[in-house]
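Annotators were shown the component list below and the corresponding predicted structure, then asked to write short factual statements about the assembly.
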Amino acid sequence: MTESRIDPVGFYDQARLLCTAVQKMIHLKGGYGFAAEPDILEKRIVQFNQRMRVDGLSKFGSRTVFSAVKFYAGVDELDRDAPLGVMIIFIEIDQLSRLFWSFDYPRLDEEDDAAILDGCGTLANLIAGCFVKEIRDAGYVHLQMSHFENHINTAINGINFMPNQETKYEIRFKFQGNRRITAELSMGHIPRAV
Amino acid sequence: MLMKIIIVDDSQLDRKLLSRSLVNCGVKNEILQAENAEAAMPLIIANRGYIALMFLDYQMPQMTGVELMEGLVKVPSTADIPIIMVTASASEDSRTAAYKVNPNLVGYLIKPFKPDQLLSLIRPYVKIND
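Structure shown to annotators:
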């Protein structure tokens, strides 16, 4: 993997586990192999009123849909909406319909924004489920997941995240020769399972 | 009146997928869909007594699948609806919470699921043409 920096506190490990989750899920459902390892970049979070600024257009230079799923350390935190972190999945709209076609899902209408938003949320939900499994298998607590939140191109009001986080990881996945999916992960310290 | 199946999931794509999977399994029951708990309530009330099976997504906005189920089990006329919880998270805490709310939960399905997993869960509750 290409990395900009390896931090000493385990956040990079979380990003690697997200890489594994995405690759496993895409391979399992769509049969895709990944020719190259994903690029993992550490980036500073830009925030406004304790909301993370998120720009989908900058990811692929074209119309982009993205979905966010929040993670919680436990059921109590989920009930209080006190997230430990957030994952955002970005994908080009035409890629999304191709991906679901490969997953053998019902056809996704690229002209229907509601269907596109829903499709990206569905993808993020599947990836999030794989990610919490990878996290658990790595010895951390089993994170709780939120429902998905979807946007096209930009999130005008930003995305809720753990406000004391200053950086996030951007992970760029390439398959079939091009960058197809980008994920962002901002996560606090995940407690170890006892 | 043929008993019905209700799918409650905020993902339209997952509703379509589950609906198609049920049809592919040979299910002949009418399948109704709702995108959230609020939309599900009129369907549940209108079809009370004729619901063969209900699929509830765990992670939904406003009211989760477990919260909706909690409401259903408290009402005698809906308490006996066979419910299968559907989720992308295999969290043991979530599973425990679901079974605590409804000890009669008939299944807990992890996305993505295989057709044979679905078939084995639904077979006792729906009409299937093999």
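Statements collected:
1. The longest helix of chain A spans residues 113-137.
2. Residues 72 and 81 of chain A are 8 Å apart (CA to CA).
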